[in-house]
Amino acid sequence: MNIWAKMMTALRGGVNEAGEAIVDSQALRILDQEIRDASEQLKQSKDSLASIIAREKLAKEKCATLKQKIEEHEGYAIKALDQENESLAHEVAEKIADLESQLTTEQDSSRNFAESANNLRSAINQTESNLRRLKQQVDTVKATENVQRAQEAVAERHSGSNSKLRTAMDSLERIKEKQALKAATMSAASDLANDSSNSSLDAKLQEAGIAPTGKSADDILERLKKKSSDK
């Protein structure tokens, strides 16, 4: 059981390593997509902000309308009181109370919309700033990546050219060595041919009695006796 657990752990480790390798190889592509996703979310936030601002504007307009109606009905109530029609004045007062309740609700909505708009506007501004810096950094990373790829390609070509150059120099040395050996062989053959030719000529001269022959032991002994008697 313990072995199976270890095997499963090793398998999960291999999957994680493979996943990390894929993520590393596609890092820039993933980063570009993440930036596009963030830009899309930013666009949606701006649409939401526009909707909130519109609602705030409508709430303010409704507040203005309610205030106008309240002021209008207050005038009605005063006229009813002037006519000593308290019943009508009371009915108008009830209408004013309802209008004031609506005004309070709309004012609360307007404040809430304004607060939400301000918070969302600040978040959008911060996100835009962060996204702009991120794009600049991504551009720098991409430029660095391109430079490193170019340097790597140059290094590979330089390494390959050096290898080819060493191979060519080795081939040249082998050719020189073979040529030197061939020249030495030809020179030796020429020397052997000359030696053979000279030996043959000496033999012919001796046979013809033209060339001097080597002195015998008797000749050398006579010379030594004569030398001894002269003393």
Architecture overview:
The chain has 231 residues and is an all-alpha fold. Helix content is 93%, strand content 0%. It is built from four helices and no strands. Helix 2 packs antiparallel against helix 3. The mean pLDDT is 79.
Which short descriptors sum up this protein?
93% helix, mainly alpha, 231 residues, 4 helices, rod-shaped
Short description:
The chain is an all-alpha fold. It has helices spanning 2-25, 27-82, 86-207, 217-229. The model has no long low-confidence stretch (mean pLDDT 79).
Helicity range: over 70%
The best one-word shape is: rod-shaped
**Unreliable runs:** none
Number of helices: 4
Derived from helix and strand composition plus strand pairing, the structural class reads mainly alpha
How large is the share of residues in beta strands?
Answer: under 5%
Radius of gyration: 58 Å
Main beta-sheet strand count, sense and barrel state:
none
The N- to C-terminal Cα distance equals: 120 Å
Please tell me the overall pLDDT. 79
Element pattern in H and E: HHHH
Find the count of extended strands (DSSP E, 2+ residues). 0
Assembly type of the chains comes to: single chain
